[in-house]
Structures are given as structure tokens and as C-alpha cells.
Amino acid sequence: MAGLFLLVIFLLSPAPATLAGHDYGEALSKSILFFEAQRSGYLPDNQRVQWRGDSGLSDGKISGVDLVGGYYDAGDNVKFGLPMAFTVTMMSWSIIEYGGQIDSGGELQHAVDAVKWGTDYFIKAHPQPYVLYGEVGDGNTDHYCWQRPEDMSTSRAAYKIDADHPGSDLAAETAAAMAAASIVFRSYNSSYSAELLQHAHQLFEFADKYRGKYDSSITVAQKYYRSVSGYADELLWGAAWLYKATNNEYYLDYLGYNGDALGGTGWSITEFGWDVKYAGVQTLVAQLLMAGKGGKHTQIFKRYKDKAEFFMCSCNARRTPGGLIFRQPWNNMQFVTTASFLMSVYSDYLTSASTSLACPNRPVSPSQLLALAKSQVDYILGDNPRATSYMVGYGKNYPQQVHHRASSIVSHKVDPSFVSCRGGYASWFNRKASDPNILTGAVVGGPDAYDNFVDHRDNYEQTEPATYNTAPLVGVLARLHAGHNGYNQLLSVELPETKNPKPVTNRRQGLIIVEQNVTNSWIAEGKTFYRYSAIVSNKSSKKLKNLKLRILNIHGPLWGLTKSGDDYFFPKWMEFLGAGKTMEFVYIQPASPAQVLVSSYTLV
User: Fold this and answer.
1) Which residues are catalytic?
2) What is the pTM assigned to this prediction?
3) Please, what's the largest Cα pairwise distance for the chain?
4) CA 522, CA 601: separation in Å to the nearest integer?
5) Of 348, 391, 370, nearest to 26 (Cα)?
6) How many whole angstroms separate alpha carbon 298 and alpha carbon 256?
7) Per-residue pLDDT reduced to its tens digit, 243-274
8) What SS3 class is residue 21?
9) Which residues pair with 583 in a beta bridge?
10) N or C, which end of the chain has less CB nearby within 10 Å?
């Protein structure tokens, strides 16, 4: 497996000096805007990237299926299913972790719209339980031409996987995207969320039952998105997201019983992206373990966690002289943004568990891990030897000749004259001038191993952007924009230690009883932390719905409730508490128990 390190030395070197503080909120807004430039299909009335127009309006027609919509992956006009699904998964994960922070930046609706543009397409692409269309267009004919998507005259053939021509990696990644997106939409559109989850279940079953690599079935994808890692990582990845979306023990057991056979506990990986998902699933399982959900799989989940920490520790193993994580010459930035995302969420998971990262030479605190993620984002935004922003449209010095068909050719709204297949190369590709359309928010491939960058349109290794470069960055930018408040409930507050917390508290409010108990305690950094279990009991003979709790004096991480403003509600996956039933939430803090008040509820 490429990129495997046998020895890792984690040294947190200082980031390059910042000339001026970055506006992470501005970068966040621009990163989300980029996805509107990548849209295929009929553009909506609220389309903000006005130089784009409708395109791909006959996609799927020759196959008798409607495949209009979705995203172009990069600077071409092909819709590749595997990277598109990964893009949607990562955008959804960004919202799940940092939705509140994205909302505070005024961008949550735009982010949710970006996810839905992808999932609407996946619903169309999955017309039957064991059929999934994984590509529209042909990379060979598309790359022969240089045309705006509005003008494209290339093949729009559609390619699918089915029971006789399987593609477990593609199906399982799409299942992950649908499951993750179902979590996003649970609070906004419950029926749409349920529809996504149904597709996710079917796609995962398809992936697991009919195993095979998708590029053995859709062979035209081999030159562009070959599945080098195979499908085992996607099967685990899909199961992890389905467990997060459903809490169904089947998927937790799948992770536990298949961790060894499918490589989740064995592969020590130093990259995470559209092809290799091991570091992502290892991070998700580590979170489950830190949240106390290991159960009978605790020992094997610890081995997942060990591999997740290997990834985190390896992020400093190879860097450019200017400090950028470096994995490969071609579109290295995809690995920088994904690593930054995983480091950001893992730092927050560590904070929630009041622990640190165990690297070979010394422990690394959550704040140090987040600082490394921040240094990568700052490099992208301009803190580098060239003082170049690798996000188009951000800062004063950013790439002007992006390897991107739509941005490099004058908008059809300015000049509707048809741009022919080869004529586009002569008239637009070979121009030594800036792009007529600014591809705002695009993250290009980036510099080489020595921080060198050549801003030429034909330098596709460095100047081509991709949706999967930008999607992980959305979450990191939201986290950094929020500062200390980036992780809401999971950032602990320094409080004086209380030596003798009350072991049990009971509060009866009408027919609802809240009972709290201390279930564990430990000492970390000289403080005693207590784990509190709070049991909410419905003593009525009716269903309990719309429960609203106010929790006072809460100063640490809390699991098992959904927070909105100052109030707490049922977790998103739970609609009601049955008659005579109980539910549990837990929290950790170095203090006496919080005061739990029942503000309101409904019995039906």
C-alpha cells in the first residue's frame, strides 16, 4: 500500500509566520460556493455562480434513465460516481461535526443544498436495489475536447454496476454518502432523510452481497479513478456510517466481526481520500470507543483506534520545507485537506474523552493536533514561501490559470458562440491569460515537494481543482472560524475541582423522572473527572414526545442528546420515548452533577 511508514516521529514544528490573520469565515463561504460551479443539470433560480448554465440535460437518456444532475468532479465534464460520493460523504461529515459553526457563519443552508444536489442525483442513479449508475461521460473522449459543459459534444454514455457486474467500493461509498446525508437531513426533512437511509441500506447490502471492484465492471474509469485499495475499506466505511445513522447493532457487529478480515485493524495508512478510506473508518470507530460504545468489540475497536492514531502521528512524517504535508506530486492538496479534517475532528474527540494522542516519541495534546491542522489550512490560504493562496478567489495572490474547462472559457452568457471540441484548445486552453471566470473556492492541486508552483493551465497536476479537495476543508474552516467554541458541547471548561460530588440525584417533574449516578471517575492532569449517567424515565401510560430539557451547570462533554441553543432534546434518531421506557444520556465533568430541568413535553 502506497504511503506506508514503518516508523513515525511526530514533531510539532511551528507554522510559517502569519503576516495577517486569516478570515476563515470568508474562506468557508467561498469553499461552499465552489460546489455551485461544479453543478450539472438544470441550475436552480437561486444559483449564485452566474457564469454557469444548464448542462448535461440528456444524461442517461440513451440508457432509459434520468441521470440529469450531480457534480462534475474536477476540471472536466465527466460525472464520476466514486469521487462524487466521497465528496458528499465528507461534506455531510463536515455538517454533522460543525453544523452549528457553519450556521453561525451564515452558510448552513448553502452547505445542506450542496449535499442535496449530490443525493438527489444518487437517488436517480440507484433505480433498483442492485443497480447503481457510476459514471456518465467518458474520460477519454472528454479529455480530447476542451469545451464548456454548456457546449459539450462528447459522449454522455452511462455506465452501471449490477449483480452480474458488481462494484462493492462504489456501492458502499454511495451507501456511506446516503447514510451520512440522512443524518444531516433528519432535522430538516425527515421523509427525505428516511428515503436516503433506505437507499443506504440497499446499497450496502448490494455492496456486501455481490462483491467486486467497480472498475472491473466500469472499465472506462480505470484510467481516471482506479480503485487501487479495493473494496474492503469501503465496506467498513459504509457500515460505520450506517451505524452512526441508525444505531443498528448489525452494523456495529459488522465492524467488529470484519475488522481483521477487511483490514480495518491491520492497515497502517498515511493517506485518506476518495480511494483509501481506512483512516476515516478507523477515526469513526475510535470515536465510538471513546464514547463507550465498544461493548463486546472493545478489544478489536482498540486496534482500529491504534491505526487511527498511527495516521494522526504520521501527518508530520513528510512535509515540504514550507511545512505542507506532502504525499504525491499530482493533486497533493487532496491529502492535505482530508488529513486536516481528520486531525480536527480527532482533536475534538480526544478533548471529549479528556485524553491525548499517543505518538511514538511523546504524547500530543488535542490542541497541538488542532494546531497542526490549522497550519495546513493557513498554508493553503497563503502562509507559504510563495505567499500564494491555493484557494481560488481568496487573498490577493491566487492561481489565475486554473485547469478547468468552464472557468477558462468565456461564459456562454457573455458570448453564446459555440465552442467546438478542438477549437476550445486553440482558442482558450492555450491562452496565456487569466481565466475569464473566477472559480471561487476551488482548491487546486498545489505545490510540489519543495513548495514550487507553476500557474499554467496545462499544468494539471498543480492547477486542477476537485470537489474532494474542498469538501473536507469546509468542516475545518468552520472549526477554525468558531475558535474555542468550535466543538460546542465537547470542549471542556476549566473549573475548580469538587472533591465530593453527590453520587446520586433524583428529580421528579410530573410523570418524568431524571435519575443521575456517578458511574466512573479518573484523574487526568491533576484533576478528578466524573462520568455521570442520567436516566430519563417515562412513568406515564402514553408516548413521550417533544421533550425539552434545560441543563444547568454543565461544563464538559455530553452524549445522547441533541443541543439547540440553551436547550436539549431527544437525540436526532429518536422520535419518542414509549410508556414505561427509559433513555440515557451521559456527560463528563470535574464537578458536581449538573441540574437537569424538564422544560416541557407532550404525552400522546
Assistant:
1) 403
2) 0.79
3) 79
4) 35
5) 391
6) 8
7) 999 999 999 999 999 999 999 999 889 999 99
8) coil
9) 536
10) C
